[in-house]
């Protein structure tokens, strides 16, 4: 199978004051926590947001694996809605030592370029900083981090840096060159 070189950048914030919020987009855009663990909805978000940028890691997950993951303490999904339609999401995961990872973040293709992403990232990052307020037993967040890669959208890195994330690591690795699966075959033009 052919391979491609993929660059992965890891970025972090080490204090809540590092967050540089984006201006909220015009119109009826809301960000709501998906409080009821729903493997169907989470898989829909994952496949719809990442389908054109080769998110494939979770496509083979069983229903039970999705359910187990979503029920873990400190795992949260925040969804942006544009006039009631899901536009994108951010998934947070509490880790050891008061660290929260923004595991997944992105918009469905039809909602990109409309200033929703900066707002959603700002909102999700703020929720990473106050995650312990919603989960008994979690230590207050001391660090928020994420990674992006050369397969992600062309504006991803700029958005993270404009929100106050600082680069702390870069890696280049060879990966299998898989086709972008889309949320279903043929959903995106090549």
From TrEMBL:
<dbReference type="InterPro" id="IPR016181">
    <property type="entry name" value="Acyl_CoA_acyltransferase"/>
</dbReference>
<protein>
    <submittedName>
        <fullName>GNAT family N-acetyltransferase</fullName>
    </submittedName>
</protein>
<feature type="domain" description="N-acetyltransferase">
    <location>
        <begin position="39"/>
        <end position="190"/>
    </location>
</feature>
<dbReference type="InterPro" id="IPR000182">
    <property type="entry name" value="GNAT_dom"/>
</dbReference>
<dbReference type="Pfam" id="PF00583">
    <property type="entry name" value="Acetyltransf_1"/>
</dbReference>
């Amino acid at each position: 199978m052919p391979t491609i070189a993929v660059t992965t950048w890891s970025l972090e914030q080490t204090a809540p004051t590092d967050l540089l919020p984006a201006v909220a987009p015009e119109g009826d855009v809301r960000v709501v926590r998906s409080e009821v663990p729903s493997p169907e909805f989470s898989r829909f978000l994952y496949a719809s947001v990442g389908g054109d940028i080769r998110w494939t890691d979770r496509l083979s997950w069983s229903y039970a694996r999705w359910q187990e993951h979503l029920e873990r303490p400190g795992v949260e999904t925040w969804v942006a809605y544009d006039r009631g339609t899901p536009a994108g999401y951010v998934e947070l995961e509490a880790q050891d030592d008061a660290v929260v990872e923004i595991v997944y973040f992105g918009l469905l293709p039809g909602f990109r370029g409309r200033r929703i992403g900066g707002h959603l990232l700002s909102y999700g990052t703020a929720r990473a900083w106050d995650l312990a307020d919603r989960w008994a037993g979690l230590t207050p967040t001391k660090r928020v981090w994420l990674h992006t890669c050369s397969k992600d959208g062309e504006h991803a890195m700029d958005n993270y840096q404009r929100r106050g994330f600082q680069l702390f690591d870069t890696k280049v690795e060879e990966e299998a060159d898989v086709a972008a699966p889309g949320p279903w075959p043929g959903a995106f033009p090549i």
